[in-house]
Amino acid sequence: MIVMKFGGTSVESAEAVARVCEIVRARLDQRPVVIVSAMGKTTNRLLAMARHAAAGNRDEALRECEELHRFHRAEALPLPKPEERADLEKLLDEHFQELSELLRGLAILGELTPRSLDAVASYGERLSAQILAAALRGRGVAAEALDSRRLIVTDRRFTQATPLFAETNARLARTIPPLARERVPVLGGFIGATEEGVTTTLGRGGSDFTASIVGAALDVGEIQIWTDVDGMLTADPNLVEGARRVKTISFAEAAELAYFGAKVLHPATVLPAVEKNIPVLILNSRRPQAAGTRIVAETVPCRNPVKSIACKRGITVVDVHSTRMLMAHGFLHRIFEVFDECETAVDLLATSEVSVSLTIDNTERLEEIAARLRQFAEVGIEQRQAIVCLVGDNIRYTPGIAARTFGALAGINVRMISQGASLRNLSFVVAEDDAPRAVRALHEEFFREADPEVFE
Ligand code: ASP
Ligand code: MG
What we know:
By secondary structure, the protein is an alpha/beta fold. 39% of the residues lie in helices and 20% in strands. It has 13 helices and 16 strands. The strands form three sheets. It has an eight-stranded mixed beta sheet with strand order 3-4-2-1-7-9-10-8, with helices on both faces. α1 links the parallel β1 and β2 (32-36). α2 packs antiparallel against α5 and α6 packs across α7 (207-218). It binds aspartic acid and magnesium ion.
């Protein structure tokens, strides 16, 4: 068995879905289990209408719901077998009727809980799974949509739920293999439910996570992540013209990159797959013949120390400074307690005796964090920063990387530097506006000559 996951852009229109059907058909002999994201921008649109409803813009929300219904009708209804078209039409009508009732409820309540956000967000994947299964049947491929909420059992952390693996794995192992012998199972990604059956989601971009949960539970031979790029690249092609495809990359490198280049892969994706040592392939549904990027367990021999340069914008640096804390113990503990209690993840960290700089990307509770830190330290905040990150298993074995890096960056102000314990990643912070220039300069430095075994 293999898992094939198709992202939102891979199913954004009738034409795209038809392309996906042919990709699946060409791999039927490998007994694919298909995971699909919501069509195109559907999740964003659902979240927007939920917000509008709860903010009291009921009519606006209902209009958006109507529009999304029209979009799904237009793209989905040409796909099934003629004799199944009425069924699919009815299914769409019922789902959008239910959704509009939910929105009316939110408008009356005037409040949006994480739980109701998940309920609304789930419609995208509930529909896309049904649509893709119907489209496969429409092209003569036996397929069946399954409701992921009956298979992926999670905790109650709405909008960021974590699967309860024992129960989830048991359900998947019981349900999928017998079915996959006869038909292609199609599951919506991203969604799950608590043990009581309340709908949850695994966090934005969570369909990749679903793919690896399912792949690991069934111990499949390979997990294919079908997206709209040719795999992982040496840098963002929007920033660097000569960015190259990375043919093979280790799990450890991919995990570092996943956080920074989250566009290609959800960070958590690799975890269940790593544990089971299942290779993950990144492939392009617009160019299925392209070889993509293969993510494997072991380090890949490579003549270049750096595999890829990632860049993450929208970063905030928090500087915490306290002379009172000079030589005192417990300073870091107090700082981290604040971030922990405000449920905000810290990404990079640099410390000196009396000050600590750290970066966050979620600023939802920034004011509260700053206020609490100010109770025992001076706090400076700088927004519109970017993390630039060099990733490569060989970074640790290659002397002189830091000198080459900062030499290449001459003239750019580097705000903060951090080399993780893995020594697989060298990260630093620059102003957002300097980031493109920094990435280009580093790409020129580290990929002027690229090992043809690893890069294309
Ligand atoms: N549809 C969800 C999102 O947009 C999950 C995914 O596409 O992976 O975040
Ligand atoms: Mg996605």
